[in-house]
Amino acid sequence: MRKTIVLYLLTILLSAGINAQKPVDLSPNPKNIEWFNKDRFGIFVHFGLYSILGGSYEGTILSPDIDTTKFPHSRTWYAEWIQMKLNIPRKDYQDLAKSFNPVNFNADEWIREVKNAGAKYFIITAKHHDGFALWNSKVSDFNIMHTPFKRDILAELVAACKKYGIKYGFYYSHWQDWEDPNGAVPYDFIEKRSSEAFEKYWQGKCLPQVKELIQKFDPDLLWFDTWGTEGQHITPKRRDELIALVRANSKKCLINGRIAYANPGENVDFLEMGDNEFPKEKIGKAWETSGTMQNSWGWHAYDFNWKPAKEFIANLIGNASKGGNYALNIGPKPDGTLPVPAIARLREMGAWNFANGEAVFGASPVSLTLSEKDVYLTQKSIEGINYVYINIIKPLDKITIPTDIATFKDCVVLETGMPVKLVADGTGTLIVFPKSLFKDCSPVTLKLRTTDKL
Length: 454
Ligand code: JFZ
Known about the structure:
This protein is of the alpha/beta class and 454 residues long. The chain has helices at 2-21, 34-39, 50-53, 82-85, 90-94, 107-116, 153-164, 195-217, 236-249, 309-320, 340-356, and strands at 41-45, 56-57, 60-61, 121-127, 167-172, 221-224, 254-255, 271-272, 287-291, 324-330, 375-382, 385-392, 398-401, 408-413, 423-425, 428-432, 444-450. Helix 6 (107-116) packs across helix 7 and helix 10 crosses helix 11 (340-356). The longest helix has 23 residues, at 195-217. The radius of gyration is 25 Å and the shape is globular. The relative contact order is 0.12. The structure holds 4-nitrophenyl 6-deoxy-alpha-L-galactopyranoside. Residues 73, 75, 78, 80-81, 225, 227, 274-275, 290, 297 line the site of 4-nitrophenyl 6-deoxy-alpha-L-galactopyranoside (JFZ).
């Protein structure tokens, strides 16, 4: 009997030892990315202290007209960069916390707009480069509870996302942090950080806050941000340390490629394109483009470069046709409301998605290529029947699909159900469009029943 007990205790001790040493598996669980590959469309939000300034400070407006040429990248409009671009003293910028008071913020209203736009997931800047946390962080006092607003915006948004069935994720600036004296600043000529100094920020703020975000909110994804000049601090070792932290604390949380843009390695869940960068070709791994409605991400009161909703719809379809996602950004105003032009565009997207979303959500790329430039193909099977969708962005007279007519059983306009005639044309299939089809100039989608996957 004694022997059995000793043996039993030994086994426990041994297995505990093994467990303690067992390294965390960094590799993504392929099941986790499934929703992302179906859901295709997300809304991104940049909101923070910079929103108060709205792109200008002491009479200087961020635009290409001002000299910020010392910044190697020319994204002069980016209002969330105002502290660096206009060289605002640290203390003055951080004092903005004393006036952060988005009294009209209403999480339910925001997420209702997200839902109505047809988006399936939501990402918000939990902490941008300025280092300010939009949640009640126990790790750093530079957070929303130390403002007149004193409400945990993330907690309210997470509750609304759950209510509306929207997946949610957080942008977290893991490399740059302009508040922490040891966090990285964009370029070495501004302030140099030794690796030892950065390590203090890394262990003292970055890793604990990421862990806090996961434990508090259980996010569906984390959106980290680097773009290729971060290598000195975000080494493969630190990248993997951060991935390990996420994997150890969440079974579901996706990680984006910008955790180390130039060197994401094999263990991220999806790749991230550059800002407003729309690839021309299909990509093997899951991927996403994040894009702006204006030029700036954060609210910019003088950035009137609002792009039309039609362009966003085209981006969404274009990416879906190449197996990718689209996260469209909004920069809310300092009072907590979404800008009117942003809401108008969301609703236009919602209208298109309401009628045509079938061609995008849950749809996959098609191996066939067409010679027309602004036509994107997607396909999906519904109840065992395969459908191919021809998404036509700009008005066209006709189109030839290089596939035998026998492949197609019928063709209708997706929105209205109007039948469209298919004509054999040599080895291909010709569709001649009635002029009336493009009357309102928004993308038109045709739905073709096919004998096989294309
Ligand atoms: C980064 C952030 O700096 C920006 O504020 C915003 O949050 C955006 C989503 O991500 O932007 C970039 C991205 C790429 C480059 C520079 C800034 N780049 O390629 O030089």
